[in-house]
Amino acid sequence: MIQTILTAVLAFLGTNIDDLVLLALLSASAKTKREEMHIAAGQCLGVAAITALSLVGAFLVRAVPTKYLHLFGLAPIIFGVVKGIQNWKGKAAQAQTEQPAIGVGTMTMLVLFGSGDNLSVYIPLFAVSDAARVAVSSVVFMIMALVLCAAGRIIGQIPPVKQLVARWGEVLIPVVFITIGILILLG
């Protein structure tokens, strides 16, 4: 059991450490508790969806077209470009008063679209695991998602990080999304 837990923790950290940067930036840019909750809920829903997809993929391991997973990198690029254009045109301030900067659905999709590395690790992990190990790993992934959200919030609240995002967030956040997308595309 301990080996399963350690394996799940290492698999999660290895495939989600990039999310920590994103969570810290988004947390630093969040204006309300509601936005922070949307970010955390979206992250957790995304991890749950990735875990479910990995379980299905473990059963269909031969049919999963893994060579196309890198194309999911287009989503963060598109999101980053749209966010950058909104910021450039000055519509970001108006949008922030009407709705949260990042909604639950948007955050969930960003997590899902950046899941190529997760799927490439979790599918084989689940394929060689029995039901008990899969269940334990799934619980560990959800706990780790909460820990990652908390760590992102803590980092995002550090005054220099908050000041950096306050000053450069309109440029920095779209650049981070576009960079993540390019890295996913490059595989």
Offer a few descriptive terms.
187 residues; mainly alpha; globular
Textual characterization of the structure:
With 187 residues, the chain is mainly α. It has one domain (2-186). It has eight helices and no strands. The chain has helices at 2-29, 33-59, 74-89, 91-98, 104-113, 116-127, 131-156, 159-186. Helix 1 packs antiparallel against helix 6 (116-127), helix 2 packs antiparallel against helix 7 (131-156) and helix 3 crosses helix 8. The chain is globular and about 50 Å long. This is Cadmium transporter. The chain crosses the membrane at residues 6-28, 40-61, 67-85, 106-128, 134-156, 168-186. It holds the Pfam family Cad. Keywords: Membrane, Transmembrane, Transmembrane helix.
Write the SSE topology.
Blueprint: H1 2-29, H2 33-59, H3 74-89, H4 91-98, H5 104-113, H6 116-127, H7 131-156, H8 159-186
Helix pairs in contact: 1-6, 1-7, 1-8, 2-5, 2-6, 2-7, 3-8
Task: Report a brief summary of the structure.
This protein is mostly helical and 187 residues long.
